[in-house]
Amino acid sequence: MRRKRPRRRRKTIEAGETLFFGTLASGSSGNAILAGNRNRGFLIDAGLPAARLLENLQRTGVGPEQLEGIFVTHEHGDHIRGVGALARKLGLPVYATAGIWEIMEAEVGLLPAAQRVVVAAESFALAGLSLTLIHTSHDSVESYGLLARAEGLTLGVATDTGVVTPDMEEKLRDCDALVIEANHDSDMLRRGRYPWHLKKRIAGERGHLSNAQTGEALQRWIGENTQKVVLAHLSEENNTPALALKTVVEMLRSHEVRQKCGRLKIRVAPRHEPHELIVLGEERRSYDDLQRERAGRGAAVR
Description:
By secondary structure, the chain is an alpha/beta fold. The chain contains eleven helices and 14 strands.
């Protein structure tokens, strides 16, 4: 049984704030990410029971009435477990490609036609955001990340991919924030108790990114605009939050990323608990104000 952790002080979203995001849960036991613009939001996946999703959502300070839909990245159970129940309870439309709908329809269950939205184009709009599909590489019928844009800010999301695809390489550069998979440590996976066929699947081109693969990709992707990176979908068996963070930070430090982006912060998504909301518009304003204040005092920004 999971121990209950102390509840974090909730970060509420006010009408004047802009692009926000946070994981509600992250890992093979269930995945869901909350994102939105101003006071409008949506979920990327809903891989937990509906009751747990609503509990974790409430802990972020965002109400269910602010949700405008659910986007499904792929049809695996840890990403769709709560989709049907939550959509029926809240009357939410569910967005997925035709290929994913075909496979997940039985699991999701009956939904009115108006709640079954087939994503047929690379880009679409939801919750005040412009969303663009990012092709990933996973052992599912199809799999996608998302690039979300609002008011000059960008959030890139990509988990469940065995390699960095050309689409990821193109679209995830210099985002203001990234939620990116750091699933396993290669040595822990190799020495661990998983059977060989499962190890091969995880480390394969349609499996999951290792800490080192993610670190290498971030060396290329992080730019002057990048404020936040959240490492997500960590394996409980073949990784630890401390190891994932240490590996990625050391790789970025050796690559002198801090010279490109002195305000970069890297965090790890909790497995069962919601991550505190990150509000990009708020952070950009505060950073710009700090620059102006220091410039007025004649101090350099380091």
